[in-house]
Amino acid sequence: MSAIESPAETLLTWSEQIVGELPTGTVTLLLADVEGSTRLWETQSESMAAALDQLNRTVDDLVPTHGGVRPVEQGEGDSFVVAFARASDAVACALQLQLAELAPIRLRIGLHTGEVQLRDTGNYMGPTINRAARLRDLGHGGQTVLSGATEQLVVDRLPEGAWLSDLGVHQLRDLPRPERVVQLSHPGLRNDFPALRTVNAAGGRHLPAQLTSFIGRDSQIDDVERVLKQNRLVTLTGSGGVGKTRLAVRIAEHLSEGLTGGTWFVDLAPITNPLVVPIVLARTLGLADQPGRSTREAVARFVRNRQMLLVLDNCEHMLDACTELLVELLDVGQEVTVLATSREPLGIAGEVIWRVPSLSVDGEAIELFVDRARRTRPDFGLSEANSSAVAEICRRLDGMPLAIELAAARTRTLSLTQIVDGLHHSFRLLAGGARTAVRRQQTLRASIDWSHTMLTDPERILFRRLAAFMGGFDLNAADAVGADADVEHFQLIDLLGLLVDKSLVVAEEVQGNMRYRLLETVRQYGLEKLTESGEAETVRNRHRDHYTEAAVELAARSGGDGAPLIPWAEIEMDNLRAAHTWSCDSGNFEAALRLVSALQRLWVIRGRFREGVAGFGAVFNDARYRDEDVAPATWIRAVANAELLAVWISVPTSLQRAQYALAAARALDEQALVTQILLTCGLLSMNDSDLAGEYFAEAAGLARATGDSATLYHVYCYECFVTNVVGDPRASEAAGELGRDLADALGDSFMSRYSRTFLTGSLGLQGKLSEALAVGSQLVEEARGAEDRPMQAFGLMALAQVLTFTGNVAGGRAAAEAALEVGASLGGFHDDTAYLAVATAALAAGDAQAARTACEDARRHTTPLKELFVRSLLPMAEAALECGDIAAARRWADETAGVVPGSYRVQALNARARVAVAQSELHQADSDLHDAVTVAERTGGYLRLPETLECLAGLAADDNPVHAVRLLGAADAMRRRHGSTRFPHVQVTCEAALATAREALSTNVFDTAWTEGTALSTSEAINYAQRGRGARGRPASGWESLTPSELDVVRLVSEGLSNRDIAVRLFVSPRTVQSHLTHVYAKLGISSRVQLVQEAARHI
């Protein structure tokens, strides 16, 4: 223990009741410690003293309760060990420890089961406790992790509500055997944590696998590493084929240890559009596109405060794009280091240029030649007889690694003497001259020329055609692009194999399938030969047609999860981009739109919205493009897809364009196309809920009529989103359940998760908190397991609100913070909604200033297109009011109450009523609260209704205490049905109203009124609250002329109640009931109860 942690040693004590005879044999050990105790003692010493005292008492209570025993002196300061004879008892104890209120302490707990060894009668030693300690060290504060051994014993005996989340198999520090790790999860706990603190968890090492051994350059590696540690941008320059990429990867491998933000490799060679450079980097970093934030902004947010190494390979043809991007990243990411490779410097201030030399011709070059020759001829070896020839080859090739590898590949069919002679012939123009960079480039060129000359005609033809591929290709693609009368289909496999043997093509296995690629320097040479041949356009057209048709065909047979399209497209993305670019460049907009539309599932499921939008935009924004030049179905489908993608990332959309496409689709009479564009129109109409509803209803009807189940569940899922945003939780729940169920049935787990995100919110808005908690918890866990970080973040945001309203404020805050953490891993993802959840949790915890700060954070991170939604849920007025800033509270409340839609108005009106009370504007408050009741009844948004009734009770307490008590009783019963809790500022209102009423009423009258209130159903409570409210604008006769009180009487008459029974239910006299009936008969022009019941049946 360090001196700074010494207070823990004096405060963390253990009573004798939990120290006893240790269990032996097979035992489950619980090891725990306090995360960041040193920092806590430095920053919160007083809180830590109290917290450790509370931890003391908590452990004293929980350990013996669960049958645990603590070793005498094992665990020191801020850590402890407990032994259990039964694994299930250990898990139950760990759960209770994590649920306990110990702030600011957060425990890391590890559980492992095994045979124990006693060091003495009071302590353990050996592998079991060592493994338990390493497990604990993997975790984060608030996290409990179990070994695979413990999991097997407890999986069927978990505490109520708990579940286990698989975290994979991990290597434990200093231990030889890796361990399967699971996490103990529970709705009351934070369940989303950063990656485990494993040996290799320092952000991850994302470097390409190398198929051949790395030879030499030890001193150069040391030199570059030393330069990189002192400078944040180093560019490896040199001729093509000199080994820049291999050297950069080798250096990155050496430096990856200890980089918490990871090591990332980005190959820019296949990129032809500068705008794609940040997109490729974002994809490498695993970032999904985000609303209101460009890809560059998302990348910049991701690298901020991360200690990471970026390796950007082959920058020379994208210098401007790389320079612009790196200047920004190096500015915002002060711990980012960049290692670039380029044939020329980037030209950025602070750049260190390190020129990569050739291999030493008398050592490393010879070693490389021998190694690569053995890959072709296993019996090849360096001997006295051939050493001079090998040395001559390496000298002639100037120690250029790629040239040496090409020459070594010839040892299968040529002798060393023949190779020397061939090189002599190819290099005859290079006699004399300095060994400059130009000379080295000429050397490589001559080497490739010689290799090319040695090919047969069919080999040369196939070689140049393969240069059209970007990033790699499979055998089918090679056949589609490379075969014709000159290269027969049956020849192609053999010819491809020969090119591999000669090192002009690299073969590698990717996900169980063989793929091929040309090294970039060789590919550039092949492109020259392709251009010289006069068949470049034909070959590029074949390439375009192959990938376009393959994408269309795979999209047509892909299931709900996007397979087989998505896995294929992710591998072939460089070729797909190249095909799209060529289509646009050559003016074939039909092919370009068909290709981008075919990839729609990829854009959505993988969060690549901006790339999809850019793909459509490249066509629609081209001055040469006209709709009439493209098949109508193609451009209509493209409009539907492009506008839908735009909604996902909150960029401007065009309902008018979509409506134009809808009219064109109707003219074609293609029902599937009409359904698709109707769905898009529904999404784009979310600011007009009635219009959106019409579009969705027609789309769903067409999809059902045509049996198009795949489109139908998309309609329901997007309708769930739109109706949630406009505050119609009943419609959102109905659509969400239909969408979820149908998506599940068709195997589309992504859209199922999408619908459940908004279903969680809609259930919560209706006060169905237990259902919302179940849906949200399952959603978050499933998204985490599927590595679906966008839906994981969305789910956490929704779950945070639900947890907060159920009274689990700590859990709500933890879920909101976890959403921010997941969002940070995506470069910032809907942070406005996450901060909104933080604000709500802070207000529920009674910390108005923290709530206000979080509200400001939410506003700072939102976008214009999301501002209304964020305003709908943001507790800014309440937070400002509790902070004493009445003017700011009133300003926000007035602005909000007039614009937010649907059920969200209940919260807005409640907030404005509170501000009005603070300003002694009681009439305004009463009006707003009654309006809130009306909105809740109309929309089904009952979550905030108890607060409305409690505020009304506060207004009524002085003049009508019986009425106030009934309202409070009704609100209390409603909260019990919802499972919701009062926030502290609401609790103050309730306590004041109760105190006033108790003072004014006898105990008997108070209790009677309370009982009457608690007996009211939600609808009865609404009717009671609205009774007596003015009837301005009501007609003199007819059903619409009935007052709320008269309607209450009519409903109860319809239920068959007598006047006396009705009087009891409504807290009035039988005479009053009869008076209401007389008025009703007169207004409706009837004279009997039978007629009244019949009339009511037509209206209620």
Q: Supply the CATH class of the domain at 3-185.
A: Alpha Beta
The structural class is: alpha/beta
CATH architecture of the domain at 3-185: 2-Layer Sandwich
- The rounded Rg comes to 36 Å
Mean pLDDT: 89
Described by its quaternary structure, the protein is: single chain
Termini separation: 73 Å
The CATH homologous superfamily of the domain at 3-185 corresponds to Nucleotide cyclase, GGDEF domain
| Strand residue content | 5-15%
Largest sheet: 7 strands, mixed
Instruction: Record the strand order, biggest sheet.
Output: 2-3-1-4-7-9-8
Kindly describe this structure.
Pfam families: AAA_22, GerE, Guanylate_cyc, HTH_77. The structure is a single chain. By secondary structure, this protein is an alpha/beta fold. Among the domains are: 183 residues, Alpha-Beta Plaits (2-Layer Sandwich); 151 residues, 3-Layer(aba) Sandwich (Rossmann fold); 97 residues; 152 residues, no CATH class; 61 residues, Orthogonal Bundle (Arc Repressor Mutant, subunit A). The protein is built from 52 helices and 17 strands. The strands form four sheets. The protein has a seven-stranded mixed β-sheet, with helices on both faces. A six-stranded parallel β-sheet has the order 10-12-13-14-11-15, with helices on both faces. A hairpin with a 2-residue loop joins β16 and β17. α17 crosses α19. The termini are far apart. The N terminus is likely disordered.
